[in-house]
Write a structure and sequence with these properties.
The protein is mainly alpha-helical and 93 residues long. It has one domain. Helices cover 82% and strands 0% of the residues. Helix 4 packs across helix 5. The longest helix has 28 residues. The radius of gyration is 15 Å and the shape is globular. The mean pLDDT is 83.
């Protein structure tokens, strides 16, 4: 049940899901990032990429992990582009 709830929260609110993950598994965040500034900046600017980085980092980033990071980055960029286009269409009509 907890895993399903986290997945639903991740889909709807990645920043909130990341903060809760950080609260409940601080050791994973400490193992991934040397200080709190990088994850804080990451979750504010590129939340999907930061989440994926935390997922793939523990074994080291190799081969297929770069594909996952690229997909997460594409989702982040798509979110910004989609929001910008929606604002542009809303102001033009």
């Amino acid at each position: 049940m907890g895993c399903c709830l986290f997945a639903v929260m991740l889909a709807g609110a990645p920043r909130l899901a990341f903060v809760l993950w950080w609260i409940f598994q601080p050791f994973r965040m400490q193992a991934t990032f040397p200080n709190f500034i990088w994850p804080l900046l990451g979750v504010l600017i590129l939340p999907w990429t930061t989440i994926m980085y935390v997922i793939v980092f523990p074994g080291g980033i190799n081969g297929f992990d770069w594909i996952w990071l690229g997909l997460a980055l594409a989702i982040d960029i798509g979110t910004y582009v989609g929001n910008g286009r929606a604002r542009q269409m809303q102001t033009s009509s």
